[in-house]
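Entry for S-adenosylmethionine complex. Fields follow.
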Amino acid sequence: MNGPHELPQPIPYQGSKRQIAPAILEHLPTTISRLVEPFAGSAALSMAAAARRTCDRFWINDAHAPLMRLWREIIHRPDALAGEYNRLWNDQLGRERQYFDEVRDRFNTHHAPADFLYLLARCVKAAIRYNARGQFNNTPDNRRKGARPAEMTRRITHASALLRHRIRLTSWDYARVLDQCAEDDLVYMDPPYQGVCGARNTRYLPKIDHGAFCDQLRNLNERHIMYAVSYDGRTGTKTYGEPLPGTLRLTQLEIRAGRSTQATLLGRSDVTHESLYLSPALVAALERTAHTNDSPLALR
Ligand SMILES: C[S@@+](CC[C@H](N)C(=O)[O-])C[C@H]1O[C@@H](n2cnc3c(N)ncnc32)[C@H](O)[C@@H]1O
């Protein structure tokens, strides 16, 4: 597994960290006993770590229950899920628009994982959007039919093979996950900032409050837990997201995340950088390893 395009991505997901997951991994230890993702979404970092075999065990959590039901199917029933996707994809042919609406109606009643996967594969920007009544309401991207069944099968099978025997899956609020983390865990957090990702504005998800999130990080510091957070960033000189406070004693790095679509449209070439914050315990661990065996773990 060399480039980002070779990482398995079973769940199409707006806001996925897939493109920059390899760059984030560069700043984490080369061996990790358990990688915990409390805001997993499509769990791009876990997939990248699993593909590189840097990690023994994984815990993927997301408060969005239908998403975690889909993850369970991907990991534990890959053949059945791939078969159901194959059937949906072929059934749509010739009446794609109407078929999307039928699957969406059914999903809003039964929340079946294969229906959700089909909707994500076909909807605009792979964005999870619900209306105030909790009904999925994104529309289809009529230029696309969704990943072909053979390709989707390959992605699902690969993800399952990588994670199957060493993963915990939960659908809790992130604070409950953090409560159960221990000193040898590495926690990677990518909370939904500015509502750009995940099931926004819905009854499915508790709101993420900046102050409460900072309190959680303070508590992790007191417990010497190693963690990294993707939070804010900038495109050119324009910043987005609220930075994390200095009192948390985090080390802030910038990850180059590519060119912004808008800047490209306007003919400018602003590059987006995303912040990655490393916790004091993580920095100490990286420094210890760098000093003891001259390994490539030093902060870059
Ligand atoms: C920015 S996305 C994560 C994207 C992920 N890094 C990836 O590569 O796909 C944030 C995720 O947090 C989830 N989320 C929102 N509120 C949450 C909460 N209170 N507890 C746990 N997860 C939550 C959303 O459902 C969404 O999937």
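NOTE: The pocket of S-adenosylmethionine is lined by residues 13, 15-17, 38-39, 41-42, 44, 62-64, 173-174, 190-192, 197-199, 205-206, 208 (CB under 6 Å).
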